[in-house]
Amino acid sequence: MRESAKALKELAGSGEVVVVCANIPRAIESARIITTELEIKDPTPSSRLYAAEEEGLLPDPAGAYEFLKAVGDSTDFIIAVVSREYVDVLPEYLSTNGITDPRVLETKHLARGEMLVLNLRSGTQS
Q: pLDDT (tens digit, 9 = 90+) per residue, 31-86?
């Protein structure tokens, strides 16, 4: 996670960065590693980035996307640490709702600790 945070720091440069995460301990812990590395304010946990199919909480990629867009409207960069169910469905949802880069379509699954960097304004992967 620290390596990912360092890569994100380079990418963000001097832009304003906000970190949001699922409202579960593992996501909050990962998000705090990122905010510590980037030396920015603590992450904002949200239930809109959490799903647990075994608990009957199905992913709502449309709701997650709306949340990310709303947060992203007021900042240069948004980093989202999501639950594993969103890792599986969010890239696919984004590819059909404004992200036009074909590399996103090829991202069917991210392993823990991997990241997908998207430019929601231009619709491309960075």
A: 999 999 889 999 999 999 999 989 999 999 999 989 988 988 888 888 889 988 88
Q: What CATH number does the domain containing 14 carry?
A: 3.40.50
Q: How many residues does the chain have?
A: 126
- pTM of the full structure: 0.80
Which of 76, 80, 83, 2 has the alpha carbon at shortest distance from 38?
2
* Residue 19: strand pairing partners: 79
Distance (Å, whole) CA 67 – CA 49: 9
The range of the structural domain enclosing residue 70 comes to: 2-125
Identify the DSSP state of 75. S
d(CA 125, CA 102): 9
